[in-house]
Amino acid sequence: MSVVAPPLRVYVSRDASALALGAEATARAIEVVARERGIAIDLVRTGSRGLFWLEPLVEVEVVAGGTATRVGYGPVAANEVAGLFDAGFGNAGAHPARVGAIESLDWFARQDRLCFARVGTTDPLSVADYVAHGGYRGLHNALAMDGAGIVAAVTASGLRGRGGAAFPTGIKWKTVLDAPTSADGAGSPTKYVVCNADEGDSGTFSDRMLMEGDPLCLVEGMTIAGFAVGATQGYIYLRSEYPHARRALEAAIANAYAAGWLGADIRGSGRRFDLEVRLGAGAYICGEETALLESLEGKRGQVRFKPPLPAIKGLFGRPTVVNNVISLASVPLILDRGADYYRDYGVGRSRGTLPIQLAGNLKRTGLVEKAFGTTLRELLYDYGGGSYSGRPIRAVQVGGPLGAYLPESQFDTPLDYEAFAAIGAMLGHGGIVAFDDGVDMLEQARYAMAFCAVESCGKCTPCRIGSTRGVEVLERIGAGIERAKNLALLDDLCETMRHGSLCALGGLTPDPVASALRHFGEDFAPSRGKV
Amino acid sequence: MGDTPQPPHDPSPHDGDMTLGQRAAVDAVLALHRARPGALLPILHGIQDALGWVPPAALPTVARALDLGRAEVHGVVSFYHHFRNTPPGRHVVRLCRAEACQALGARALEAHALRTLGVDWHGTSADGAVTLEPAYCLGNCGCGPSLLVDEDELHARVTPAAFDALVAGMRR
């Protein structure tokens, strides 16, 4: 009688970027080859570890001396899968694509994976897997606390909004907790928790990776937020450009309901929290919280005047917590490990970790979660490996389309909200986009204005009209028409937009424009028009 | 005698302009979503998912179901880039135009795509195979240039040659 060997456990990502790089075909090939060779496998589809140059990454569980470790091979195209079996990858066999344990790679080992601890290692849709890897411990603790206690823990952690504005999360929650529930005289106790998953900044994908790779972490964070402020309904406002995240979230939410982690009586506590996903419809402005709320109400995504703050009068006029995905997904850990544990990471007033996204023209792009304080240079060269094209990195845009363009002389700036503000830049949602020396900075400045023109909600004039005028002025400068006069006009226009716009779209579009002009003036030089 | 009075010309669409199939799809979507708070976006998504576009002729029905003015509904549909008021081609390609993709050659890819398809943005190739739409970030910023096919299939590191191969597949 022979002992049946346990199936070979193989992990392949189902993250959108991994799929775009061929992970689905690789996963299919693994199933086909295993079947042909009569090898039993257990193929687990995970999120991505965030090392995109290794995707499609194949990890295999190797058991030695009773301990299971994972050995990675990557990138593995579908037509290389047979070779992987030939090399005996089930026993960590040698192969040109073998990279060893991902945790031991320098790129990974030097990170501080708090929020992204599970992403890439677990089955994102499995509640059992989530719980087995530390999930729902934070909520378990929260169930024993009152709202004020939860808010105090989040406040003490130093967590600030990761969507870009960096407003202290605990203070926002306290405002909603303390908001009178019957201000309208109707006595309605309704409050809402809204997750801003409208991750529209170019160069950012951490929300997407978290939602695809560990959606239950967001579900748990939102449930805790609901308990903290006294809300029983949550909405995830997800951009329509993220179909993979939508599928992951909807499946995870259904599984959480089935397991009693959402609904009328969460795990027998008598506490209620309901959650649903709502789709945006391709409007960048809906990442602005008041425009998002309008959109959720079924209206045009136009920015509201503030005050009143959404915390007082938000969705359907009720007190509402609006937080970014990463802010909410950081909460379970804070409730699990304690506020001090989280606050001990970071520098100055920037506490905890930031999931940094390396994007654009870099060799090793992906997700680097680090405590605040790393320099841009370290991220671009040590992690990023320099440019993808092999040419010098000339400019870096941090913080999305409204972020400043930085020249090499500023690459030693540490990633810290205040340090970036001090050089007229912003960290935003932590996206870093590198450009090589082929970039035309006047063209980038023109694009910033053009993007604002396309995405303006139209409510205020500086943004709606100013952006179109900005495109025209930059085109005249590019063509060498009345250069001095148009540069003065551009400066004036930027001032008007900065101070006269209702929200950050019009208010910050001048930043990429002015920084391009300030640091890369040669691209705006008179010689340009004569070429 | 003889001339019967003509009704004033009204270019705006009427419910009667919907095909039976469209009407059935719109009614099904309304039945599913109309009672939800903030129902308009889920309804418009439902209609576009079912039909590929949001026919202007459907708007009066939607407005009536939600007790809104037709202009209000039109205002919402036209605000959001995602919703189409004309039918798309057999496939929709959404090409990312944002900065991270620009840093990897998206501007050249855009020019190539517009030229080879012979369209402007939102246009459909003459053979009806491909509608080209701009996207401002698909969240694949580490592996651009990026495009999304039929709201589902994401492609990374798209070169002009890879684009041509993809389009050739859609034309078959």
From TrEMBL, chain A:
<dbReference type="InterPro" id="IPR037207">
    <property type="entry name" value="Nuop51_4Fe4S-bd_sf"/>
</dbReference>
<dbReference type="InterPro" id="IPR011538">
    <property type="entry name" value="Nuo51_FMN-bd"/>
</dbReference>
<dbReference type="InterPro" id="IPR001949">
    <property type="entry name" value="NADH-UbQ_OxRdtase_51kDa_CS"/>
</dbReference>
<dbReference type="GO" id="GO:0046872">
    <property type="term" value="F:metal ion binding"/>
</dbReference>
<keyword id="KW-0479">Metal-binding</keyword>
<dbReference type="Pfam" id="PF01512">
    <property type="entry name" value="Complex1_51K"/>
</dbReference>
<dbReference type="Pfam" id="PF10589">
    <property type="entry name" value="NADH_4Fe-4S"/>
</dbReference>
<keyword id="KW-0408">Iron</keyword>
<dbReference type="GO" id="GO:0010181">
    <property type="term" value="F:FMN binding"/>
</dbReference>
<dbReference type="InterPro" id="IPR019575">
    <property type="entry name" value="Nuop51_4Fe4S-bd"/>
</dbReference>
<comment type="similarity">
    <text>Belongs to the complex I 51 kDa subunit family.</text>
</comment>
<feature type="domain" description="NADH-ubiquinone oxidoreductase 51kDa subunit iron-sulphur binding">
    <location>
        <begin position="442"/>
        <end position="487"/>
    </location>
</feature>
<dbReference type="GO" id="GO:0051539">
    <property type="term" value="F:4 iron, 4 sulfur cluster binding"/>
</dbReference>
<keyword id="KW-0411">Iron-sulfur</keyword>
<protein>
    <recommendedName>
        <fullName>NADH-quinone oxidoreductase subunit F</fullName>
    </recommendedName>
</protein>
<keyword id="KW-0004">4Fe-4S</keyword>
<dbReference type="InterPro" id="IPR037225">
    <property type="entry name" value="Nuo51_FMN-bd_sf"/>
</dbReference>
<dbReference type="GO" id="GO:0008137">
    <property type="term" value="F:NADH dehydrogenase (ubiquinone) activity"/>
</dbReference>
